[in-house]
Every structure is written in structure tokens, then in C-alpha cells.
Write a structure and sequence with these properties.
Layout (H helix, E strand, L loop, with lengths): L5 H7 L6 H11 L18 E2 L6 E2 L12 H4 L13 H4 L16 H7 L4 H8 L35 E5 L26 E5 L4 E3 L7 H11 L7 H9 L6 H32 L16 H72 L12 E4 L2 E5 L5 E3 L5 E5 L5 E3 L7
Antiparallel strand pairs: 1-2, 3-4, 4-5, 6-7, 7-8, 8-9, 9-10
Length: 419
């Protein structure tokens, strides 16, 4: 339905229609395929277009005498390359950048900008969802205030974390206080997770995890435990996206702006038509020369009257045009004010949503359950976890390292039974 926006189409739906399902289908139909799943086509421009930050193939018709389309040709940088880069180089490089040094966003970031979840993205990709590399499902986490966002695969920028055992199904809480109620890895050692202050949860020593442990993690936290588990939890609970209402308001305001623009263009066309009215001037023919003297007085009077009417009409049109322009200016200023207010509201809504998500995540925890907190002990420049009761030392990943005797000396290896 060309030329119509979603809000206008919704008004055409019959009563009782599934509007929520229709809106989701509409948004799904506007999604772009991620670059890594696209092929290098032949024909058309092979440069990159921004495409919401995904940087996909341009495909516009080539400009005569150029290897690029008119748009890409007008934005060439060094060596005659388009500033957004070349798509054939884009699809095979995870660390690809444009010729101006800009990095594309991940497919998960693209979905979030559209107000959609990973579940939506997997449905859109269908059977090809399994072909999408895991890094395309990642979102950047927020680092410390004023610093750049950190990679979701590392600890940097996530903030403080709490170490927890992964509970067995027989344990009713989220963090058992002893290893008897915790999952064991392939090597028989207890499995742990790190819960960070930003709400994300990560698996520790991932290679040691069993299928049963992976299933338990998915049940408790969602996600794969290598990055943003809290994002999957939000999708699993089926929460409405925080920006949905704001996006609907933006659609309404965009439709209003289009209507005002159409009215303005119509007014301009009407004024141009009126300004172009012909002012007919009657020439006296040579055959009527004899009657010129008699008709001159009448012609002069008629011309004067016509000029006065034309002047009055022009003044009225000028005033009407000025009034229309002033009214349009006021409407545009009001629309701009509403847009600015809406942007502030959207920013406040998103911030509030993030705080609510963090509170909702923490509310699922059992306040009476004990958590195993990392107790740092520095030995020869390396930080180990010290068990205050047994005086045993272990690495960050739970590997046993040694113990401290009664004299305060550190020994590597297992503690003798006589001690």
C-alpha cells in the first residue's frame, strides 16, 4: 500500500482484527537481511549503503562511465572508493570498517533499534538463523560513565560480579551454599556462573559444561551464557518494548507532518496558478483605426478599472499567501516542539525501562540464599580465592591451587591429611 504509514493502515482494518499481530508482521516485513547471509550479486552498484547501520549492498543502477551508482560516485574517497566501502569486502570480515573507519552494528543491535527481540530475528531469518555467527547476536554493554562500551565477551565494563554455583534441579533456589547441590562439569568440578551488576550472567570455564548444565542455565537465565543473558530473559518474559508507545506517537507525528507538507504544496500550486493568470491586452486593429478616437476614452476607463481590480486582487492574494505562510510556520514550529518533547520522553522512558529490567531481574532471587563471593588473596602477583574456613586457595575458575598453613605460609598442592 504505497504512500501509507502504519497508523493509516491500522484505521482500515476491520473491527476485531489482530492489530498487535498485524503491527508485528508489518515491522517484520521491513527488516533487512544481515550482510553475512547475503551473497555478492552481479549487476548494479557494488558499494555499501548504510541500511540502518548494517551496511548492505547498494544495488542501484551504475552511472554511465563509472563503476558505481550516482550516489556512491558522488561520495568517493581515496583511490576512487566509495566512502561507505565495498560490499564484497564487507561480508567476509568480522572486523570490517567503512573507508571512513565506521563499524557496522550487529544484527542484534539492528533488531533492538527496531523494537524487536532475538526471537523476532530468528523467526525472520527462518532456517538461516543457525547460519548467523554468534557475534551478530551480541549487544554492547555499557561501561563506566564517560568511557566507550566494552565487548560483551569480556569482563571489562560490566561492573562488579557475584560468583554462584549452578544449582541442581533438586535445589529450589538460585545459588546453593555447598557443592552437593550444584552441577558438576565434565571433569567433576563444580560449575559456577558470574552475575554482574549490569544484570548479565556468564558461564565460568565454558568448556567444562555438560549438556544438563547448559539446559539448567537456559532455564534460569536464558541466553547462551557467553554474553548478554539478561537480554534473553527479557524476551522470554514477553515484555513489551519500552519504546513501543513512543514509536507509535512518532508515526502519528510523521503522518501529521506529511499532511502539512501536502497542504503547503497544494497552497503553493494554487497561488502559482492564480499569479499566472493572463492579463489580456486588446490591440486595436488597423481596420478599426477610424473608431480609435471614440473608443479610446472607453478603453482607457476600462483599462483603469481592470488595473484597479487586478491590484486589489493581488493585494488580497498576497495577504492570503502571507497568512498561509505564517500559519504553516507556526504549525511547523509546534510540530518541532512536540518532536523535541517526544525525544526527551523516549530517552526518559528507555532509561526507566532499563532500571525496571534490572530490578525485575534481581527480584527473582531468594534473599535468604547464600552466595559464594570471591575472597581475593594475592600470592606472587596472582589473585586467588581464599576459603576462610579451610584456608585453601583456588583460582578464579574454581581450580584448586594450594593452602595456607597455621604459620601463614602458602603451599601449592593438596593439604596433607594430618594438617
Amino acid at each position: 500500500m504505497p504512500g501509507k504509514v502504519l497508523q493509516e493502515v491500522l484505521k482500515l482494518l476491520p473491527n476485531g482484527s489482530d492489530e498487535a499481530g498485524f503491527i508485528r508482521a508489518w515491522n517484520m516485513s521491513e527488516l533487512e537481511m544481515p550482510a553475512v547471509l547475503c551473497s555478492v550479486e552481479t549487476g548494479g552498484c557494488g558499494g555499501c549503503k548504510v541500511a540502518g547501520g548494517l551496511y548492505l549492498r547498494c544495488n542501484k543502477p551504475l552511472m554511465s562511465g563509472s563503476s558505481w551508482c550516482k550516489t556512491c560516485h558522488a561520495n568517493l574517497v581515496s583511490d576512487g572508493r566509495p566512502k561507505h566501502g565495498i560490499f564484497a569486502e564487507r561480508i567476509g570480515d568480522e572486523n570490517w570498517r567503512t573507508d571512513e573507519g565506521k563499524a557496522p552494528i550487529t544484527f542484534m543491535q539492528y533488531l533492538k533499534k527496531k523494537g524487536m527481540t532475538r526471537v523476532d530475528g530468528e523467526e525472520f531469518l527462518g532456517v538461516r538463523a543457525s547460519e548467523l555467527p554468534e557475534y551478530e547476536w551480541k549487544l554492547p554493554t555499557r561501561g563506566r560513565r564517560g568511557s566507550a562500551a566494552s565487548d560483551t565477551s569480556s569482563e571489562g565494563g560490566r561492573g562488579k560480579y557475584t560468583s554462584r554455583y549452578l544449582p541442581l534441579d533438586t535445589y529450589k533456589g538460585v545459588s546453593p551454599s555447598d557443592v552437593e547441590h550444584a552441577h558438576k562439569g565434565s571433569n567433576g568440578k563444580v560449575l559456577r556462573v558470574y552475575k554482574y551488576s549490569d544484570g548479565s550472567v556468564r558461564k565460568v570455564n565454558l568448556n567444562n559444561w555438560t549438556d544438563a548444565a547448559h539446559a539448567k542455565f537456559e532455564e534460569m537465565y536464558g541466553g547462551d551464557g557467553t554474553s548478554e543473558g539478561h537480554e534473553a530473559v527479557k524476551a522470554k518474559k514477553g515484555k513489551k518494548h519500552a519504546n513501543d508507545a513512543a514509536l507509535e506517537q512518532m508515526d502519528e507525528m510523521r503522518a501529521m507532518l506529511e499532511k502539512l507538507t501536502a497542504e503547503r504544496d497544494a497552497a503553493k500550486a494554487a497561488l502559482a496558478a492564480k499569479d499566472g493568470e493572463d492579463s489580456m491586452v486588446t490591440d486595436e486593429s488597423d481596420a478599426e483605426a477610424a473608431e480609435a478616437a471614440e473608443a479610446k476614452a472607453k478603453a482607457d476607463k476600462k483599462a483603469k478599472l481592470k488595473a484597479e481590480k487586478a491590484k486589489l486582487k493581488a493585494e488580497k492574494l498576497a495577504k492570503k499567501k502571507a497568512d498561509a505562510a505564517e500559519a504553516l510556520k507556526k504549525q511547523q514550529e509546534e510540530l518541532k516542539r512536540q518532536q523535541e518533547a517526544l525525544q526527551k520522553q523516549m530517552a526518559a522512558t528507555e532509561e526507566m525501562s532499563e532500571e525496571e529490567d534490572s530490578d525485575a531481574f534481581d527480584s527473582d532471587e531468594d534473599s535468604d540464599e547464600e552466595e559464594v563471593v570471591f575472597n581475593g588473596y594475592d600470592y606472587k602477583g596472582t589473585l586467588y580465592h581464599l576459603d576462610e574456613d579451610t584456608k585453601e586457595l583456588s583460582t578464579e575458575d574454581g581450580e584448586h591451587f594450594g593452602y595456607i598453613d597455621d604459620a601463614g605460609e602458602v603451599h601449592e598442592g593438596e593439604k596433607p591429611e594430618d594438617e
